[in-house]
Amino acid sequence: MSQRAIDNIASAVKIGLCILPALVLIVAGNFFANIFMPGVGDLFFPFITGKNFFFRIVVEILLALWVFAALFDKKYRPRTSPVFWAVLATVGVLALSTIFGANPYRSFWSNYERMEGLVSFLHFFAYFVMLISVFKTEVDWRKFFYSTIFVSFIVTIYAYLQFLGRLEIHQSGDRLDATLGNSTYLAIYMIFHLALLAYYAFKERRVWVKSVFTALLVLETPVVFLTATRGSILGLMGGVLLFALLIFLRDWGAENRRYKFIAAGAACAVFLAVGAFFVFKSTNFVQNNYVLSRFAQLSPEERTTKSRFIIWGMALEGFKKHPIFGWGPENFNLVFNKYYKASLWQQEPWFDRAHNVIFDWLIHGGALGLLAYFGAFFLGLYALWKKQADYLAKVVFTSLLAAYFFHNFFVFDNLTSYFMFFAVLGFIHFLTQTSLLAGSGVVARVPKVEGTANPFRYVAVIIVFAGVAWSLYFLNLKPLLAGRALLNTLKDMSTAGQNTDAILADFDKVFSYNTFGSGEAREQLASYANNVIVSGLPTEAKVAVLNKAVSALETQVAENPEDARAYLFLASLYLRGGRIDDGIKILDKAKELSPQKQQIFFLIADAYITKGDNARAFEILKNIYDLEPASGESAKNLALISVLNGKDKYAEEVLSGVYGKNLIADQNLLAAYARVGNFKKVRDIWALFLEQEPNNAQYHVNLAATYMQLGERQTAIGELQRAIELNPQFKAQGEQFIEEIRAGRNP
């Protein structure tokens, strides 16, 4: 193997690494995905899966090439540093946490929604090692960072087109998310690039490049604010202030005194912005602006803020259970269920993140995992300030890491933030390994080239290439095909859901790949079965779908015996299929796993109501209501069962305590009053519905039927006449009803 060939292979790795930043543009099925991943098409969770599969596939291919070059030439092997050991320790601890965690399978694979887990961190480590191994000069790093800056420019243009209404915002109606599909992800991605732009705007000697980067800095900064991500915005402001402070602490001399003026201007801009916000906080301008209004609502009593503190407390309880290695990556859902508090009733029912970097790492990797992760931060900062002389790098990347940490104190990482974080760590590693001469481009020390005669290297190359071929198929191709098959199944469900044989065949195809996507597919099958059971399809079709779904969810429970969510899905199917006792048994197990989850109690109560044991159902619903009397759902369910038990007065007291009135517009409560024959209450509830929608013709028809039950036939006719006025298509049927009533008959 010639030296030139080895260098060419290493150059190919460099080019591949410079292409990797394009991952942020990829949304499964979009223009960029069709360029970089031709033939893949749409995927489940397109904003997540497309980027992750692209990253993993490219990293694995580059890894094979890099190993080839590194085996034959020492200069392409990584040199150690404190940062290197910290990154290695982080991945090593996560590996141990996966092995000894609560659900090793999930810890390794994660799911389509996140696509993290140990498998991702192994790829991040490979990516980091290749960066520090082949990027040996400042020019190498400049090319890499310029490539990601170019991509950030495309993302910025996309974001502004969203702001102008030319492109769809995917996550919400206002908060920009560009090609990342999530405003929080976009915010931290832009913060990383603002730091890179600031660094190279200062360092560049070419005036036109300096001008371009300055313009991009001005262009991209507003995007962070337009995401309305409060933690990111505050983190950016804090980073800017830290940057200004560190600039002021250094004597730049007369020649570079402008640095202090720039820093002073940036700091003043932050203080003016904050001051103006507090001055105009109560104005309509602030209250009607989707960005500023989110800050105006920020307080310890805000629902999101209160829930964060509760969830962090739950995470702390979970950490105490497994303090050394934690629960394993991707297992926060188990902690959330086990320590769930009824006071979280206003939040979404399933959390898989603590939304705090400290507590997430305590759960994923325990104390050792948190120490290793913090080691990457602190050793990176140590290396910046002790191991090299580029003060600008110290200032910029210290400020960036501070902003990044503050951002993560309220949310969590994702592929794009990790991608940038490991790149910055790689650059810091480089800065500690080389001596930069002011104004000279780059000086890099490289080890002596090793000979290539050893035949064992060729054997190692063959093994590595075989391993990469295996990983490309099992780690990427199979899950990718399963994800595409699942998405096609969901499309078929929406267009041809009555063809149960075809839908079940679609699910069988997903299951045939035997990937981590099977878990998601089982839940989707359960939802499909619940819809089929209440449809007008033939009994044979319902039975076939139900049996298939039950079998799938029984497998899900067997594979995830500590996950209350799996038990809930299975119990719902049992209850739908009339297996009430089996459903109660499964729900009792779910209650052991999550003692305060309201949904579990509601389903148990439904099961006992179906069995006719209303007294037991009342006891169950009373217990969960007492845990959190402010819960609207708990109050409604307790009121309903109180009505069925003849406790009408108590039902009114419960509703008054939450809603301030003794009756509310609720279909289930209405059905309960109808079931016990209290049609005066049914009448009053229909009246409440009509207060909300006075022009709803069907409500008037329903109210007419209620008046018939009360013997108020003339009033019923009036409601039918009103329904005919609102819906002329109802005229023939409505007049027929009226004739029947006038004739003394019940229509």
Automatic annotation (TrEMBL):
Keyword match Mitochondrion: no
Domain O-antigen ligase-related: from-to ranges: 221-374
UniProt entry tagged with the keyword S-adenosyl-L-methionine: no
Membrane topology, as annotated: Multi-pass membrane protein
Chief place of localization: membrane
Transmembrane segments: 12-33, 53-72, 84-105, 117-135, 144-163, 183-202, 207-225, 231-249, 261-280, 361-384, 391-412, 418-444, 456-475
Positions of TPR repeats: 564-597, 697-730
Subcellular location: Membrane
Matches recorded under InterPro entries: O-antigen_ligase-rel_domated (IPR007016), TPR-like_helical_dom_sf (IPR011990), TPR_rpt (IPR019734), WaaL-like (IPR051533)
Keywords per UniProt: Membrane, TPR repeat, Transmembrane, Transmembrane helix
SUPFAM superfamilies assigned: TPR-like
Name listed for the protein in its UniProt record: O-antigen ligase-related domain-containing protein
Organism whose genome encodes this protein: Candidatus Giovannonibacteria bacterium GW2011_GWA1_44_25
